Amino acid sequence: MRLQINKLFLALSILSALIGLGFLGWILVTLFIKGVSSLHLTLFLNDLVDGGLRNLIVGQLVLALLAALIGIPLGMIAGIYIREYGHGKYANLIRDLSDIMVSAPSIVIGAFVYSFAVAPFGGANGFAGIIALSIMMIPIIINTTDSMLSLVPKELREAGMALGASKYRVILDVVIKAAKVGIMTGVLLAFARIAGETAPLLFTSETSNYFNLDLTESFPSLTVSIYNLANEPEKSSRDLAWAASFILTVMVLLINLAGRYLTRNKK
Amino acid sequence: MEKLFQKISLSSATLVLVLLLGIFTTLFISAKPAVEAFGLQFITDQRWNQEIPLIESSDTVIEDSDDAIIADEDDEDMILDEDDEEDAATKTVFGGLVPIIGTLLSTLIALLFAMPIAMGIAVFLAEIASKNISKFVGMAIELLAAIPSIIFGMWGLYYFAPLIADTFGGYQVSLLTAGLVLGVMILPFMAAVTRDSMNTTPDVLKESAYALGATKFEVVKDIIFPYSKTGIIGSIILALGRALGETMAVAFLIGAVYSLPDKITDPTISIPVAMAVNFGEASGLGESALFYLGLILFVMSFAVISFAKFYFLKRGNA
Amino acid sequence: MPVMKIKNFSFTYAGVEAPSLKNITLPIEKNQITALIGPSGCGKSTLLRSMNRIHDLYPGNKYDGKINLLDLETGKYNNILAIKKENEFIQLRQQVGMIFQKPTPFPMSIFDNVAYGLKIAGIKNKTELSDRVEASLKGSALWKEVHDRLGKSAMGLSGGQQQRLCIARAVAVKPEVLLFDEPTSALDPISTGAIEELIVELKKDVSIAIVTHNMQQASRISDYTAFMYLGDLIEYDKTENIFLNPKEKRTEDYITGRFG
Known about the structure:
The structure holds 3 protein chains of 3 kinds.
Chain A: H1 2-38, H2 42-45, H3 54-85, H4 89-102, H5 106-117, H6 126-150, H7 154-162, H8 167-178, H9 180-195, H10 199-202, H11 222-230, H12 235-262
Helix pairs in contact in A: 1-12, 3-4, 3-6, 3-9, 4-6, 5-6, 6-9, 7-8, 9-12, 11-12
Chain B: H1 2-38, E1 48-53, H2 65-73, E2 90-94, H3 97-128, H4 131-146, H5 149-168, H6 175-199, H7 203-211, H8 216-227, H9 229-244, H10 248-253, H11 271-278, H12 284-312
Antiparallel strand pairs in B: 1-2
Chain C: E1 2-12, E2 21-29, E3 33-37, H1 44-50, E4 62-70, E5 77-79, H2 86-95, E6 96-99, H3 110-120, H4 126-139, H5 143-146, H6 159-172, E7 177-181, H7 189-202, E8 207-211, H8 215-221, E9 224-229, E10 232-238, H9 239-244, H10 249-255
Parallel strand pairs in C: 3-8, 3-9, 6-7, 7-8
Antiparallel strand pairs in C: 1-2, 1-4, 4-5, 9-10
Helix pairs in contact in C: 3-4, 3-6, 4-6, 6-7
């Protein structure tokens, strides 16, 4: 009887794993079928106004990259503070708050940025979108940096300081280097995540039909446009939305896999 | 140089605190007009963007005492000329009950759906699968987590929703569909955190149980789960916190209808969706009401996530 | 004359009531090897780590008494416990180097590892760096094995080689004193022998203090030995006397293996 319960239990557990894999497979296959069938070269050559996705792809990447340019250094330095310099309650407080912010609703962040970067400036603009994305990125980078630094053995730090190096030199020359791979993976994963975000951009940088690189205006976004296209009644819009979804997913998963590839040997 | 570096890093860290306070403050300031206009009744009021006349005859002034109170403030407008019914002074009322209920119910459905599957996956990864299979399946689950939420919306709307409607009847775009897809979205996270908690069980403990002849099921049930109980509960609550704020997938699937669902297969709305859908055109009191909703959501998420962290997920990071 | 004079030194860890070291008075003789031995928890590592104030990476510890370090240029002694400023700490650690129990190669090339202490001391001249790296690696009996792969990562070396690399790195800055904290306990017997030989060689240029839980090692290589127990210095004498003719009963009990 016990053995039968055990067998049932194992079966249920394997079933759950299959369900999980099933959903993944279902989504990926769907994306592939619907996306690939709508793919053609003109999508990459035309902008949305002409039925293509070029401006959206470029725009999304530009937003994500610029947000990363802000978010990565700020996040890393803050992470260094809480792990290397902070010794007490304040560092722990920042660590905890950062952890909470990682799971905070992204639409609220969008609303927050709207209040000071959109409304007073007369409308949607790329800067606001970038700010929203970087606000999302910073806590993630802080967490990852903090975790990776904590894995560096304390003897390494002591050895550095025992040679007469000042603390910041030991951190930059030795500790960060030792944690380099883990931090880079964390950065790539965070980048993949914000590159796929929609809610923070919805009313900050919105989107644009045109190839626009002017950050003071509404800025083309692949994710926001998918949302808009999916809400349009024409079949052509929906097909475009699928093509865009496919491309978005490929982009995000590739970056994600690249990040994981980095630490493939480190486990 | 050392001092400079210390100062810079401290400032960066303080930025987090500043952001958090900034979010709270900004939300509150933007929500203030709505808060002042509707007070706490906002949470229990079903009406959204409804115009109601400022005065109503005593027969029709029903339970909503707020109207009476507010009408008092606008005493002057109470004087209505019977010939001017078209110009009858009205005010617009916003109440957050429907989105709040929608958020809570959709999250509940998501949790109920995801929990058993996530636990099953965690057990599979931690205790049943061989190292290689565990790695592969673990990777797959993490990929599921990496898929952008708008993709879940697309897939959910065109492929999952019809299946649910065929199975359960009712609308394709509904509370149920949204809740289930939300469940699929929080599945990987819950599974990962549960698996990590389970892995903290010392091997010697497990080995002692096996050595007594226990089956895998018994070891999981009697040793591992009790040992990692707090971590598992924490993962569930944390997943709840995340699900509360999920926007895009739910926006595709919940229907964006401002009414309480009679059946689980009816469309309704959630807070993030209300914000996403209405923010563009909203202005004045309407926009403020959206901020009020946002504030409520932010406070809810913050409370739930903090609760999970501090009571269940002590990470010993000192 | 001793290169370091420890006088009535007591040490209490942060947040702890009772001191871990009580009233230690002990010299470190110039160009000699002084071993600190004793059972686990006796405070020998704590004492060693006070000599380069590496404890100060972790705030809140309490010191009492003096640790006087000889300044080779002026001939005067300075109390290193009085150091407060960052650049003075840096200078101290350039004068008093440390080798740890676990080999700690930095994630860089072999050359960069050995040159690290020199670079942060401000030495930029490529020839000088090159010469000093070579000299240190030769002095650590590592040159022959790595001279053709100085640009390769230090992480690829074996445990024994990594430890010799750490020694080369510490020696490159030409310190007065080298502190060894159980340097061979993580190594195999052959590497241990090589490192012991190396340490004995080094004493002509530096003064050495070594913590070891291996009594045979202490008797093999050290000139002076200090036996510690529960935070007190029980006995200090020339090594032969400690091992052949100990004055204190507790010392004798430890040496003969009655406890420890």
